Amino acid sequence: MDIATGPVTLADIEAAADRIKDRVRRTPCLRARYLRAPLHPGELLLKLESLQVTGSFKARGANNAVLQLDQAALARGIITASGGNHGLAVAYAGRASGARTVIYLPEITSAAKADKLRAWGAEVAIEGAVWDDANDAALARAERDGLSYIHPFSNPAVIAGQGTVGREMLKQSSHIDTLLVAIGGGGLISGIASAAKAIKPGIRVIGIEPVGAPTLSKSLAAGKLITLPAIETEAVTLAPRRSAEINLEIIRDKVDQIVLVSDDEMRTAARWLWFEMGVGAELSGAAAIAAIQAGKVDLPKDSTVAAVICGVGDDGIGG
Prior knowledge:
Elements: H1 10-20, E1 29-31, E2 43-48, H2 58-66, H3 71-76, E3 78-81, H4 85-97, E4 101-105, H5 111-119, E5 123-126, H6 131-145, E6 148-149, H7 156-172, E7 178-182, H8 187-199, E8 204-210, H9 215-222, H10 245-254, E9 257-261, H11 263-277, H12 287-293, E10 304-309
Parallel strand pairs: 2-10, 3-4, 3-6, 4-5, 7-8, 7-10, 8-9
Antiparallel strand pairs: 1-2
Helix pairs in contact: 1-2, 1-7, 2-4, 2-7, 7-8, 8-10, 11-12
C-alpha cells in the first residue's frame, strides 16, 4: 500500500527535528583522517548513524511518525514490517510512547535482530521470504486488529524524520560537496535529498543500491515503479522488491545519480570501516564506502564527500 504522494519540505524536516530532539542522538560527522590507505584525496566525512538509538537512522523517522499519532491510535497499538532496522526503531518509538508494538519480519532477517526487537518489548511475527511478503501480512493484521501502521519508507512523516540526517550533516559541515546515501525503499535518500537540496541546491546526492536489489534504478529507467521478480542480496535492509510513488518522485527530482554495488564490495567496505575506523557496520551501512572503494562514483580530488554509515553491524569484524 503506497502512502499518498506529496512533497516533503524543509519546513517539515525542521519540524521533525524539533519534534524528535529528545528521542534521538545527534550523531558525529567524523573526518576520516590518519589512514594507511585513504579512499579519497579530498576530505571524507562519515555520518555515523550506526551510533543512533537502536543502531540506525530509522529512529528518526519512526519517532517522528509515532509522535504525531493521537492517543486513540497509540492505545490501539502500532505495527510495521521491516528487514530489521525500521522494526527496531518502531519498537523503540512505541515503547517510549507507551504503545503496544507488533513487528513483522521476513524469514531472511537475522535471529539477532528478532531477539533485539523482543528485548524492546515488541511482538515479533515472521512471515514470507522477503520484506514485501512480511509487509502484506502486516497490512492485513493492521486492518484486522485496528493497529496503526507505520510504513518504513513511503510515509511523509518518516521521510521528514530521515531528512533530519541531511539537515544535521550540513549544520555540522556546510562545505560538503557530495552526499553518498544507501537506498533500500528510498526513505532515507528521499529525506536527505529533500533537506540537502533545499539548504544547498548545488550539492550532489548519489544513491547506492545492491546489484541484487536495484529497485529504484530499475524504476527510474522504466519511468515508473517496477516490482523486482526476486531479491538476490544479503543486505536485507536494502531489499524491497518495490518502492513507492512518493520516493520515486523525490528521487527522480532530487537525486543526481544511483550506482550499484555488489555484496562482496559491501563486505570489503565493512571490513575497511572496522579495521581502519573502528566502526562496526552492516552491509547496508557500508554501501556508501563500497561505492567509493569500487570506483563507482566520480569524486573531484579537492571535494568534500560525506558517506552515511546508516546501520550498525559486525559484517566487517570477521574478515
